Amino acid sequence: MAANTAAPILNSSTAGTSFSAYYEVDERVAARQAVVLADERWRSLCTQHASTFVAAERRSASIRGALRELLNEIEGKAKPCVKRVGRALDPNYANVPAVGGGVDGVEGEGKRRDDDDGDEHIQPASVLLADLAEKHRLRRRTLMQHSSLIELLELPSLMDACVRSSLYEDALSIAGFANTLERRHLLEHGGSGGQQPQAQTNEKSNDNKNNDVVAGVVFEIRRREADLRRMLIHRLRQDVTMPQCLEVVTALRRLNGVELERRNNSKSIGGGGGVASAPTSSDHDLEGVHAAMEMRLQVDFLEARDSWLEGGVNKVGSAQAVAVVVSPMPSSASGDKSSGTSAQAEQILDGIEQYRTRCFEIVTQFLAIFRGSFAATSVASDNHDHSFSLLSMWIARRIQSFLTTLSSNMATHINDTATLRDALDAASFFASSMGRVGADFQPLLGPIFEPRLSDMIVRHWNDGLNGMMETLKACRDAGIAGPLFGTETSTNADGNHGSENHDSSVEMMLSSRTPAPPRKLLAVPALARFLNVYLSGLNELRRCLLPGAFPAIRSAQSKLIADAKMALQANERSVLTPGLRGEAARLREVASKMKSEFDQCLEPYMTGCLEVALGSVDYAMAEAKAGERARVEAEKAKAEKEAAERVKAEAIALEKAEAKAAEQAIKQAIEKAKLEEALANETAEATEKDAVSEVGHTLEQNEISFVDNPTPSLQNESDFFDDGEDMYGSD
Length: 731
Hints:
23 helices; mainly alpha; golgi apparatus; transport; 77% helix; COG8; disordered N terminus; protein transport
């Protein structure tokens, strides 16, 4: 089955050779790819170090040119000397007269002219040999001082090595030694007065010719001084600590001292003869030059540190940095938005913190280094004021640049009041920190943050108004009124429940001073949603409340209310247009209801909420009075309720007592009746017994009398009883 599904690539006869060729092809491709990668790597390295290669090539070309010029100069100067010496030592050439004479005069003159080729007159051999011996002695003496001369000639390269190795002390020592060389060998003949001007001029020209080497060394050292100054200033453009900064400024001051010494040497040498003159103008000039150099040093210091400051905070808070932070994280739209917001906030806060740290560090370094720089001068107050004015101008420029950058970043990246509050806290801390050096700029933060706060609030409100207008337009176009109607929930169904809600609302108003939203707006969902968005905009003020933005917020609310009224009026006019399709009657009804509810309920509530959010004193006092009156009325109603309950309880207790007393009386009456009945029963029984006994006795008597008188007449029944007695013997 596997053989049927997979088609064979090679047959069995050519399998080995094909596989070997296949692997050979793979190795060639891999080798070719490795060569291409190596070539690309080589090209990238060449591009990366192109400046070094160009500098090395230029230096090698300059060295080759200098050596070629030196060789040509040596050949040009040595060849005539060798030729002249050879002619002087040639006896045949020396015996030829200078001007043609004798038999061979014409021929000798022609030969002399052909051999001289315009050279000067050949001196005798003795004189020429003496001159050569003197020059040889001079060169031997020079050769004995070879090591010292080598050290002298290596001073420029030694200073260059010191500059590159940051050995400032050694480099400055070499620069000072160059001033000594210049004073001893180049300027010592400039001020000597003389009475032989021609001889003095010749001697000066010879000295200048002999001191070309020293002049070249001094010139190269001056060039290294410029390199040293550039390197020191470049060091200030980096992150340096206070000791390092003090070291660099000290080196720059010593370099200025070397320059002043050179100027002083040139002035003193060029001033005239050997008699010392009163240092009137030169000293004052040097003081002015020193003050100018010190001022220039301060300017260079601030410019270098300013470059360091800008290099550290140049891209903080920019869109590029935010994109770099957000782009590597793939997520949903909401996640990108939240991560972008947090990244923007972090960028802005980091920028403010770095700006604060670096500005304060620069100001501290400047004050620590240059505070007493002019204390020893005769007019120290003016120069000291100039120093501080320079620092003040720099601080003002940096603060203005910071505020401009902060304003642009806020308009671009800050979209919520939480970030705005954090940025305000960081900027306020920056301003208070600069206040310790007399540069507090907190009043300048208000015009930047207050408009941004009002813009955020107005943006929320405008979103709510646009949403309401879109809802009204959609319902009007569709001809449906269902989304515009809602169920009105009222909490005042009965008296008790309404009083409880009233008490709770009073307590809430007294505790938070924020009125509760009117619940009858639930019957109009469009206005309810508009109110919710309005309240969410006011909730932003809880995070960052700036009093300077109150007028703008109040005017924005007035415009919002006017725009909302115009929108409701336009909606009412639109639904009153004849030919409206759909639920026209309900749309007209809800349009009129929305307009009346906005005027009667929503607008006063919005005004009250705004005043509560802004903490208005008048509104707070009015609300406090209203709350106090409500509290008094609530306490009075509570006291009346308690009194009524107490009276009712007393009445109930009295009724219970009376009922209990009546019950006791009834019980006593029942018991008395029972006792009387028992006594009556006993009396009746006794009477009955007496009556029975009397009747029996009477019957007995009657029987006896009947026996005696069998037909007696019966008497009335009343004859058996008395007039005042009944049959039971009771009254």
